[in-house]
Design a protein that fits this description.
Layout lengths: L2 H14 L2 E5 L26 H14 L2 E4 L9 H10 L7 E3 L9 H11 L5 E6 L9 H4 L2 E3 L11 H9 L6
Parallel strand pairs: 1-2, 1-4, 2-3, 4-5
Helix pairs in contact: 2-6
Length: 173
């Protein structure tokens, strides 16, 4: 098989499976700079880094993944409003959902572990987050983590790793 056929098979496999990007916003889409608040658009939310937008669009277009928001802002807006926020920033999304509202003030680590414990069907996923508490995830889950540098965020350097993770089989203990 030539590389073109291999790529088509991989792309078909990704598109025929339900895959999710567990996505944080601060430190991923919006670089965290403590000395300067990020500029906002008229919708009341921060402007996304152009590099992060380009990288996320590439991951989304090649994987067909849906976004599952894990950010602490996830319930600040409705799903419909979030879709408009992403679209306004140039991100083409296939599907978008949020983790449940965090009424018990759980850590991001606990929220993700709860999602993993309660999801009904096997689906491939990648976690894109800058939260250092995620280093305590079980090894099989941590292997699905792309941990961004908060002041840089998501970049082109993360794209191939995200696609590799999304196309790899799940081996969760």
């Amino acid at each position: 098989m030539d590389n073109g056929v291999d790529c088509k098979i991989i792309l078909f496999s990704l598109l025929s499976c339900k895959v999710k990007i567990l996505l944080d916003i601060d430190g991923v889409m919006v670089p965290a700079k403590s000395w300067s608040p990020p500029p906002q658009l008229e919708d009341g939310f921060s402007i996304f880094s152009s590099k992060a937008v380009q990288a996320l669009n590439e991951i989304l277009s090649q994987s067909g993944a849906d976004i599952l928001l894990t950010t602490s802002h996830k319930h600040r807006f409705s799903v419909g409003q979030w879709k408009k926020i992403f679209e306004k920033r140039g991100i083409i999304i296939h599907g978008l959902s949020r983790l449940p509202e965090n009424k018990n003030y759980l850590s991001r680590l606990a929220e993700i572990q709860n999602w993993l414990a309660t999801r009904g069907q096997a689906e491939s996923f990648v976690i894109i987050d800058d939260d250092k508490s995620l280093n305590d995830l079980p090894r099989s889950i941590k292997e699905r983590l792309i941990q961004t540098q908060p002041m840089i965020g998501l970049s082109q350097a993360h794209v191939s790793e995200a696609l590799r993770i999304l196309s790899s089989s799940l081996e969760l203990a």
